[in-house]
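Hey Z.,

So I finally got round to the protoporphyrin IX containing FE thing we talked about over coffee. Here's the setup:
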Amino acid sequence: MVRLFGPLVGLFFAVALLWSFGNGAYTAIKEPAAETAEHAFHLLPKDIKFASDGAFGKFDKAQLQRGFQVYKEVCSTCHSLKHVAFRDLAALGYSEAEVKAIAKQWGAKQPTFDVKSGERGERDNIASDHFPTVYYAGQGVPPDLSLITKARHDGGAYVASLLTGYQEQPAELLKKFPDAKTPDGLYYNPYFANLNLSMPAPIAGDGQVTYSDGTKATVDQMATDVSAFLIWTAEPKLDKRKQTGWAVLGFLLVATVLAYLAKKNIWADKH
Amino acid sequence: MRVRGGSRQGISMADEASIDTLGVTGEGVRRRDFINIAAVSFAGVGGAAVILPLVSQMAPSADVLAQSSTEIDISAIQAGQAIKAVFRKQPVFIRNLKPEEIKAADDIDASTLRDPQTLEERTKEGKTNWLITMGVCTHLGCVPLGAGEGEVKGEFGGYFCPCHGSHYDTAARIRKGPAPKNLEVPEYSFISDTVVKIG
Amino acid sequence: MSYTWAQEYKPGNGLTQWLDEKLPLPRFVFNAVGAGYPVPRNLNYMWNFGVLAGFCLVLQIVTGVILAMHYAANAGVAFDSVEHIMRDVNWGWMMRYAHANGASAFFVVVYLHIFRGFFYSSYKAPREMIWLLGVTIFLLMMATAFMGYVLPWGQMSFWGAKVITGLFGAIPLVGEPIQIWLLGGFAPDNAALNRFFSLHFLLPFVIAGVIILHIWALHIPGSSNPTGVEVKTESDTVPFHPYYTAKDGFGLGIFLLIYCAILFFAPNALGHPDNYIPANPLSTPAHIVPEWYFYPFYAILRAFTYDFFFIPAKLMGVLAMFGSILVWFFLPWLDTSPVRSGHYRPLFRKFFWFGLIPTMAVLFYCGGAPAAEPYVMISQLASIYYFAHFLIILPLVSSIEKPEPLPFSITEGVLGKDESAVLNAQPTAA
Ligand code: HEM
Ligand code: FES
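And the result:
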């Protein structure tokens, strides 16, 4: 039975597939898929290196603090950081008192609700709070940034490229795709998946922030610093993970060599 | 892999050859035995090391530990009243004692009590009227009555735990019933006259 | 059943003696994976993957039970609870990465285990039942992994749930009600998330049960081996312990090295960035694909792009996708060659290495590629070969192929002719 029906079923699927294949091939030749502006002009992230890259990479705390400063002064008006708590900032090298002060002075406040009076209010942030929600009335929905570098391919480099990638729409693009003109209120950026986004270039010029450690705040420097910070917010346990990893691999390597030798011993007379 | 001292049945003929070198013969351990033992030991150590994260993951997480202090406004508590606040997800009783209640607490010779402590020892200097304790019965952890408006305060005018009948006095000391200790006084400090920070 | 020369369990002391009389668990283990189980002496490293698959199941259950202690199956907080695990729970990041990559490792190991079966025709009599149970385990694993992937409630979780339950919508007439019933709503939400969590927790234990049956069925004929010649005499076998425990121990070491390298240094390499975006029912990611281990079947699903007579393309795709795994159930009866091992089957071997393996590679690649040309056309060709291989080529090859001469026995295969002649065993047809 199986040997009778098997080949029949096989033929059935094969013919149905051939039918799809033939139709598909025909359409592909008759009406080849049109090239799109996104496909032709989208760019992969620039090759930007971070201290935390690679198996031996570690966060550069000074850079993370600078990146946090950029986030605070530039990004935080529109983007929240809801998975991160103020207390987590201690990992960037801030003291407990500094963390408390940062929380207390943070612009956006924690909402409160008085169950008796039904009144809504606000209170200052404390260290154990997560970064508060940010409300944004303008065009588009600024995403939460806690995980942004893990939510995009090549996240750190992507964010840095996006921040430094704003430019005029190339004339060549408009010539080839006249319909693809950047709509009003959007900004052209070839690193963004569909080329136009509603965030204007947030880092507009050198010196937009003043670094307390004296680092020169060029546009590239600020973009890289804030991206490094966002790599940290997405994976705060990165350093610990790699450290643990090396210990585990070292142990396993020795254990595996021993297991191999033991196996050889035991099999010695059987081969 | 064969472990020293294991049952002989588990060992193939091929391995029989190495058995005569068991430590008892005094020859010491042969190299090939040594490797087998080392390999098994490594597996054991690895297995044991894995237990560590498996156990510690159940301990309080960073966010739970971070909530270990609360600040409470006590300005609205009149003498003779108490409020329940929350500290580490447990009730805290903050009670503004009336002079009679302070007197009742002081009239007793503390050394005769089950858990000898004076009201002074259980409050901050100059603020003996502010009795701040955990609202957790030291018997088995129920929340005693007496802090809320109109709740029974027990035979000694403090707190009464209905679970198994523990009576606490106006200094929240155990006076009668199964509880072994006075209601615990958490770590706290006055940030100002009207705000206490617990934890 | 076991071979007459299998070692017998002898309790060593009073306690084991007592236990042996009341509940002979040590005896059971001794006979199952101890010295009491004689195994062909010539197993190669492809035979390591069974034990490794068992290890992966244990790994998933241990890490899974731990994740379940911290995870909250509610659409409002599921995503946040996973981040809570990653950030605040002690070692939580390690547990989560161990579980997510553990699923991948499990599939790698099981695929190798299955393809070992294909090449050495491990499914043939008298081992059909082992094979049937094995394919059942694979199906249960797919269901488990799919539902697990929904739990973090990211974009891929949500759209994966929607698309996969949508497959049932392809069933004529009752399809749509079935989909709504499966989800407990019109789109994935709390009801779906909760039932997926419940079943994701349950199924691994069902898998553990089927694995026990799988091993039970294995112990009836005993393990197969690379020559495909059945065991004849004691010299063909070695006791499982210490020989294969040692070999599996070494295999486990290699496995753990690779697994841990990924876990600690590239834990997101096998995942999709989109799943770090919280589920958004109003916006589909540009490019939705399942986890990598489903790629070949996803490629087959997407290969049907045109209605075939009265059968809608969608239904064809679903039939073919399920069919592509169900054919495995029929392998013992499709491949009728009396010879098992691919080593002695010249034609079969060619189709295996130059047909099936490249086809699977292509399907793996195309399943993860965007649903656009040329990938669709390539998957169509590969899918044709896939079905033809199992349903047409295998039956044909088994009837026309002239197998190469088999060794007389396993021992001869290992040690050469002379020595085994001394053994003086009765020749039997393989
Ligand atoms: C056959 C064994 C199993 C497989 C193949 C499997 C697979 C998966 C997969 C692919 C995920 C998504 C991982 C991610 O991307 O985050 C997942 C998540 C999860 N699994 Fe499992 N799992 C198994 C067993 C279990 C068991 C036995 C439990 C509980 C008893 C469990 C509990 C969980 C939980 C709570 C999550 C959500 C947390 C998370 O997403 O990281 N799993 N599982
Ligand atoms: S718990 Fe309060 S008396 Fe037992």
